[in-house]
Design a protein that fits this description.
Blueprint: E1 5-8, H1 10-18, H2 21-36, E2 44-46, E3 49-58, E4 61-68, E5 71-79
Parallel strand pairs: 1-5
Antiparallel strand pairs: 2-3, 3-4, 4-5
Length: 98
């Protein structure tokens, strides 16, 4: 077997369609790695069921997925927008409250 088939829930497919071309390419590269090994050491189980997993597949892109037979279903896609951080880069190490 070459790897697991990757599919999305409807909501995740809609979110993927809204990603920039660059971020979508990073997501697809990360998913290609996971398709070969959905239990990769960079992933973690969600709860007690080993087939419910999460992984940060690219900078600022976190997914939650389910492994079933030869299919990985991405059920949650979280994209972090760095422009929305409360702290600017120059404030991260200061230890003071804003």
């Amino acid at each position: 077997m070459d790897g697991f088939r990757v599919t999305y829930t409807i909501e995740c497919a809609e979110a993927v369609a809204l990603l920039s071309r660059e971020r979508r390419a990073l997501l697809e590269r990360g998913l290609a790695i996971l398709a070969r090994d959905p239990y990769h050491k960079a992933t973690a189980p969600i709860g007690t069921h080993e087939d419910n997993r999460k992984a940060q597949v690219a900078p600022g892109v976190l997914i939650e997925y389910v492994v079933a037979h030869a299919v990985m279903v991405v059920v949650v896609l979280t994209v972090f927008d760095e422009s929305l951080y409360l702290l600017a880069d120059n404030e991260l190490g200061s230890g003071e409250d804003a």
